[in-house]
Every structure is written in C-alpha cells, then in structure tokens.
C-alpha cells in the first residue's frame, strides 16, 4: 500500500494505492470514491481487502480539501467552486482521465455521496462509460438527501446554527491529550477500533470541518431527484449494497432502485452507513465478489 500525492483540479490530494493503477499495462483498475468526510485513511483496510480479493490495482480518492497537506492553500473563501459538488466532480475526473492507466478497464466503487459522483461522471462522460466494467454503490446517497433522517437534522439544525458552531471552533484547538481522551471515549462507547483515533482527530480541524460541512450543505441542495437517465445507463453493470437501518439512504429509497432488477444487483447487509469504522473487510469482500465476475468480460 502507498500514499501517493497528486495535484488534481489545482488541489494537492492524497490517494491510497494498492499496486500501480497509473502504469499497469492495461490491467483492470479499481477506483473508489469515498463518502463525506473524504479522509482516505478510513479506507485503508477496505483497500487492502479489495486488493487481496481481486489482485487488481486499487486507487482510493477522497475529496479536495478534506485533508491538511503541508504548504497547501486550501482556504474555502473565494474558492467555493473548487470545493463544492461540481468542483469535486472535476477533481475526480482529473484523476481518472489524466492519471489512471489509459488502457485499463475500470471498476468503480462509490460510498455514500461517492455513488452520486459516479452516476454523474458516467452519465456525462461516454469515454469513461465505455471503459467501465463494473460499478459498486455502497450505501448510496443519490436522491432526496435533505429528506432523509440525517439530512433533516443536518439541514434543519446544524445548518441553521453553522455560524454559531464555528464561534466555538477554538475548542478543537484544546490540548491534544484532552481531545484524545474525548475520541477514545467515543471509540469505546461505540465499540470501534482504536485504529480510528488519529483518523478522527485529523478531521477535527476547523479548516477541514468547514469544507466537510460546505460540501454536505451542497449535497442537501443538489442531490434531490434520482438521475434516472444515468442510472438506466449503468444498471446492467451495477451492484448495490445497502442496509435497512440507514439514516442517509433509507429503505424507501432502495425500493425506488429495485425496479431496475434483475439487471441491477442489490444486496442487503447488516452494517452501518459508515461501514469503514467497523465492517471494511466484509463490505470489501462483497464488492470484490461482484468485480471478479466482471474481470475480463467485454
């Protein structure tokens, strides 16, 4: 596994790679777009299991501005067009078109809002669609986000007190020992691995949270109606993994997608929407199973 740094749509970006997805002599490549927050280290174990189960090069991409990199100018004000959904689409497109091995067939994985990115990218870029061998949508948030349980809370409460919240952002600059204690308590209460401690601490930075919330608010405003044209286009190569107890992508939304069966593969699992905290290996294994059925198929 490697952490690779590339400039994508003018923003320096960390990527997780397994194998070499940039120069692999035309071997199939797996590309995963994360959920929001787009901090790629949460997907470390996921990428390792994907690589082990498929023996294909893997590239994990998060979201522009969701990591603090040395000397990187990632100020939000005046650069909103880079950090909103449209800018993030260009960010992913830059990676896929200009850096991934151009002779490779592509297996896409999208988690949460990453699923929306994939449908939009494949709907609007026929050259990418022609190279696409499979699509895995994991707990997809691709419609009516503001009407979901979690969306109502974010839009109806957090968004309304956004400015007030950031008056207290100084609390996030408290001594590291104190913040570590709080995060350790959170992990213990929720039965999560200590490996997540530093990952959570990294996103508890006001400069990161500002852009995480900025993107989330844009999701609330933009991700409304299902892109039926885009979904129709990819249904025959798409696998969906979902859970009935999902505050972002409730079962009612999944029923809207079941009309596309049997072309569409869909599987219910017992896992959280934020599966990378507890269920990375099992979800990666399911995604890999579907990818393996598509490797070498024209």
The shape is globular
Mind describing the biggest β-sheet?
Answer: 8 strands, mixed
> What distance lies between the first and last C-alpha atoms, to the nearest angstrom?
29 Å
Percentage beta strand: 15-25%
Could you give the order of strands across the largest sheet?
A: 1-2-4-3-5-6-7-8
Q: How is the topology of this model organized?
A:
Layout: E1 2-8, E2 11-18, E3 29-33, H1 44-54, E4 58-61, H2 80-83, H3 85-98, E5 106-111, H4 113-124, H5 126-131, E6 132-138, H6 149-158, H7 162-167, H8 176-189, H9 197-203, H10 206-222, H11 228-234, E7 238-242, H12 251-257, E8 265-268, H13 280-294
Parallel strand pairs: 3-4, 3-5, 5-6, 6-7, 7-8
Antiparallel strand pairs: 1-2, 2-4
Helix pairs in contact: 1-13, 4-11, 8-9
Describe the model.
Strands 1-2-4-3-5-6-7-8 form an 8-stranded mixed beta sheet, with helices on both faces. The radius of gyration is 18 Å and the shape is globular. It is of the alpha/beta class. It is built from 13 helices and 8 strands. Helices cover 44% and strands 15% of the residues. The longest helix has 17 residues, at 206-222. β7 (238-242), α12 and β8 (265-268) form a beta-alpha-beta unit.
